[in-house]
Amino acid sequence: MRRIPRGRMLRRSPRSPRRNNSVTRPTNHSRSLVLLAAVVLLLTGLLAASPTPAEGASQDLVVSQVYGGGGNSGAPLTHDYIELFNRGETSIDLGDFSLQYASATGTGNFGANSGQLTELDGSIAPGGYFLVQQGAGAGNGSPLPSPDLVDPTPIAMAAGAGKVALVGGTEGLGCNGGSTPCSAAQLARIVDLVGYGNANFFEGNGAAPGLSNGTAGFRADGGCIDTDDNGADFGSAAPAPRTSASPGNDCEGTDPDPTEPCEVGESDLTAINEVQGDGQQTPIAGESVTSRGVVTADFTSGGASGIPQNQGLRGFFMEAIAGDRDADPLTSEGLFVFDGGGTFDGEIGDLVHVVGTAGEFSNVTQITATALDVCDDTGVDLPDSAALPLPTAPQDRAEVLEPLESMRVTHSELTVTEFFQVERFGEIRLSADGVLQTPTNVHLPGSDEAVQLAADNAAANIVLDDGRSGQNLNRLDSDDLLPYVEAGGTLRIGDQLRDHTAVLHFGFGAWRLQPIDIDAITDELAANRTRPRPETPPNVGGTLKVASFNVLNYFDGDGQGGGFPTSRGATTPSELARQTEKLVDAITRLDADVYGLIEIENDGGEFHATRTIVDALNAALGARVYDFVDTGVVGSDEIKQAFVYNRRTVRPVGEFAILTSAVDPRFDDTRSRPALAQTFTRLGTGERVTAVVNHFKSKGQSGLNDPDDPDFDQGDGQGFWNATRTASAEALADWLATNPTGVQSLGALIIGDLNAYGREDPIRALEDSGYEDQLVRFTDGFPYTFTFDGMQGTLDTALALDDLAARVTGAAAWQINADEVPAIDYQESVGFPNNQRFRTPEIAEAYYDPSAFRSSDHDPVVIGLDLGRSNHPGPPPGTGG
Fold first, then answer.
1. In principle, which of 299, 564, 566, 657 could form an S-S bond with 313, CB 3.0–4.6 Å?
2. Considering only CA atoms, which of 24, 113, 18, 114 is closest in space to residue 63?
């Protein structure tokens, strides 16, 4: 039997006696990661020595299993339970102990009432278990094996997260370790503590894993392991309660010496593929194993390139060396090792032996390590990466990707399709099929072609994560605080990774890639930019240009520097200044004669948002170039549309006109914002065009819960409120046929945000009335102005009737927003409605770009018209408003 040479030891023996009860209260929690606050507790004198509420043997009494999903949907067992274990060599009388429960982050205290406290009775033999039955859910599952104690007022434990304390005495503790910290005297009563999931009170560096209706938390090595660190000591697996009648577990003689994993003989090693098994869960959950592999990616404290201390996945990935692999295509040769103690300090390419407990965490097979050795014979090569089989339909991914779980995979070309979670979770979405189109932008809703494209899009997608499970985490050890986004640069849809290798992982309900080197990926994406920034707008020709621009909730407070925050848009004067700076750059670069602005504050009076943006434009140009059509307040919505125009080239003729429900009941102005029409004349030629700027009802549910309502989502890709948008389009076409401004012109140009993609019913209703889509007419490939759910399409329109269409010389979207990462926009912090951007001040400072790029979430659309030549040098006296 070949002996593996002993390497450097990275953990103390898990069988070392308990030295203290290092109960830790975190100061911040995000997703499943909690930040250590032991220093705080030490400074406040709250970190107690080992509690001795009963006889000394009680230090060997531990909580060995917790389960809170009993009776719930999909639960295998009818009741919650707490399992105790005696690690010692003498029997323990339980009469002086109680089990006390508190919610993960709530304000209730341990044992606050009889429904949160169980008085114990009986005894536990050495190496024996004791099962306490707790609350029942909805009655699903099978009964527990005969429990040793049934609580008459059972604790209703939460399935995913909570706090269980084994306490000396039967009085409630009167604290919860979170909102009510535990005093030294209260800590001294805690014999053992298990915080699981997002609990804010736990032993050691981190909480035990989050659990579920189908998983329980297991103390490693059958209950023997107690390093005073919940994160290191506990794994998760299918519940398997043990009672006093179950076989005992001798903690002094059941496993090889865990202080020397590299000396374990090969016959005693469990291969990675045996831990993984040929199904979706490990077949040896809860068993203590010793396995080995070569480290392929490191997400321990400071492991992966660019990840700060204590922000990684708290573990590493390893793969089997050549001699340990099998020929079974259903078994993965990769594995995640959870190192809750954060003691691993090896490198990628090291051969590592791991002692720990096999289990599942968030449906990923892992070993929860209790001891690690980096062995001396590290002369092994990294295994070749496997091909990433994408596209793969979502319903097939469990079968196709499970055999590659935790392995290195490579794909020839992956394209960025979305990045809206990069600031909050460090995630971007990639496509194996290039940039993805919104199906109803190119195909009829509900058609076979649209259904197939939606399926193809779903099959092509995969998440690229950042090796962390937290949220709102800056990368403070790098100039690029965000993963994959260059500070002072950007990340654009269409950026690519080519022949890139990452680790295949699963988490938060989706298959994902974990990076091996974040900085290298950031550089590669910037280098492989298939859609470079367009610094200037498209040349659409003509003698007059009309632009449509959704300015994303431009609100100016009270218009005099105060009145913040408003209900939308900028929340401070500083944010308004940044937003204005970006919009001014975009509008002046567009250099249009008429602008239809959407999502501008619906206010009036002397100081209003439309005047604020026009004043800023003129200040930037150093002259009174632009003016606006003063509509005052229009309708009842918080936002409206507005016209801004170049007073040196055009002027409004006649009065503006508004389409509301009063004009046509089909146009529901409580949903769609009133349409605004104005006729403009080209100075010097006198030719006229009527522009009408629109903003139809959006696709969100907006409180609509009746599936029989015609506006309910019909499942054809058009979303909610399609019937309202279609009726609005029909009413709009009929209204324009009446010449609502009363001024004769070459025709009406429909612009604005119709919240309908190119082949959806509202657009086709306008086409049926004779209007032609000018973006489709003049765009090679598929036009787009907006990105949603990793797909792109056109919500912003330019439609004209025959006579006016004959004068259109070009139409295009200027792609300055839909392709750009939101991190470079104007917002400075999370202090605005709904915390939409989850932005930290550091990111706001490092990434803000004062230019036109990401000045909104919609791309502006510009249309060229041939209205004859003018030699007029400027506005005639008395024109303009």
1. 299
2. 18
